[in-house]
Design a protein that fits this description.
Elements (H helix, E strand, L loop, with lengths): L3 H5 L12 H13 L2 H4 L6 E7 L2 E8 L12 H12 L7 H21 L4 E4 L14 H14 L4 E8 L4 H9 L3 E11 L10 H12 L3 E3 L6 H19 L8 H9 L4 E6 L5 E10 L2 E9 L9 H16 L2 E6 L2 H5 L4 E10 L5 H25 L2
Helix pairs in contact: 4-5, 5-13, 9-10
Length: 381
């Protein structure tokens, strides 16, 4: 359908994210009881519970002088440092890599002028992907008014929105003056009424899982030594192989988040020995994310450790009828396993801030829409 009828059609969205108050309180309590850097070694932030219009959220507060900081609380790191690091994917195309680095460098003063690092971030669970509960216009208005009154000099930020999961929320935010800044391309393995059609790669992954000599480790089987090993495996993959700009989750973090019941864990270990692969799953309402994946990168690729961790997460989602946001990266891998692409956005409100910051954010929105989104889609970043 096209034309006026389609434009006036109401935007549909299922409310898949719950944010149980007890879970939010446990999460915030953990990060107030312990030093943040004992849990996430490369992060500086303050965190509190934010209750508005009957909804509860974790809220993070960051100052501009906290930078450099982990990108989950620092847009400068996300849009400049992380983007620069991502150009490593174009090592085989040096001219393109130099052009992209030049483009990012040219945009750096604009990002800094936006003042986005001085922020109050709503619904920040300190993951790369933070599924957002359904927000309607009255709730957005209440949220905005509350935070402007409390933090008149801070940008209001909500990360991890996408057109598949959040169409009505995005529409409500736009209607109340939020700007949508494209962030990255993510992959969704959606919930469905029946088990998904198994692609050839999915069948191979499960065959590998059935045949592996490694022992499966369930959520209730993790020991203190396993928490330490899990952190090592995560570091091998996300910090050593990918980039040290990723959140540096510590063994203490994995242990405490697991003990609180905020994440569940699964993995593979050598018979009677140490873990060789691990995954941490965050289930919120009927939405699933996978904030922790790690494996022993010194073992041969043919062992299929990453493939088996992703298969375990997909099987968890299918068994429970969950909407699985598989986050960014490994684009071809995820597409071949039934996931579909979506652009992820950061929603930003700056209507109460000085003209210079508002203008920089508007220009960022336009540049990201005209240049950023086509690049994200073309190169599956």
């Amino acid at each position: 359908m096209s034309g006026p009828a389609a434009m006036n059609r109401p935007t549909q969205q299922v409310d898949r994210v719950e944010n149980k108050p007890a879970k939010v309180e446990a999460f915030v309590g953990l990060f107030n009881e312990l030093q943040v850097r004992d849990l996430i070694a490369n992060l500086k932030t303050k965190i509190e519970t934010f209750d508005v219009a009957g909804r509860v959220f974790p809220l993070t507060l960051n100052d501009a002088d906290d930078a450099p900081n982990c990108y989950i609380c620092c847009p400068t790191s996300a849009y400049i440092d992380y983007a620069m690091d991502e150009t490593r994917n174009f090592a085989a195309h040096p001219l393109l890599r130099r052009a992209l680095n030049a483009l990012i460098g040219a945009c750096a003063p604009l990002v800094r002028a936006s003042g986005l690092d001085h922020q109050a971030q709503v619904n920040n669970w300190l993951y790369s992907t933070n599924p957002v509960p359904l927000l309607d216009r009255p709730m957005v208005a209440a949220l905005r008014a509350n935070l402007i009154e409390r933090f008149p000099d801070r940008t209001i930020v909500i990360r991890s929105l996408n057109d598949i999961a959040d169409p009505a929320t995005i529409a409500a935010l736009k209607a109340k003056g939020f700007r949508m800044l494209a962030a990255r391309q993510i992959y969704i393995f959606a919930d469905r009424s029946a088990a998904p059609v198994m692609t050839r790669d999915m069948k191979r992954d499960r065959a590998r899982l059935r045949a592996t000599p490694f022992e499966r480790v369930g959520n209730g089987d993790f020991t203190e030594a396993d928490y330490v090993r899990a952190a090592q495996l995560y570091t091998m993959l996300y910090l050593d192989k990918y980039t040290p700009l990723n959140p540096h989750y510590t063994a203490r973090y994995i242990a405490e988040m697991h003990r609180c019941g905020i994440i569940s864990l699964a993995g593979l270990r050598r018979p009677g020995g140490e873990l060789v692969a691990v995954t941490g799953l965050f289930e919120n309402g009927v939405t699933l994310t996978q904030p922790i994946v790690g494996y022993d990168t010194s073992l041969p690729v043919g062992e299929g450790l990453y493939r088996m961790m992703m298969a375990m997460a997909q099987d968890h989602a299918t068994a429970r009828g969950l909407f699985f946001n598989m986050s960014a990266g490994a684009a071809g891998f995820k597409r071949r396993r039934g996931a579909v692409a979506a652009i992820e956005y950061n929603a930003v409100f700056a209507g109460h801030l000085p003209l210079r910051r508002r203008t920089a954010i508007r220009v960022m929105e336009a540049v990201l829409a005209l240049v950023g989104i086509p690049l994200l889609r073309r190169f599956e970043l």
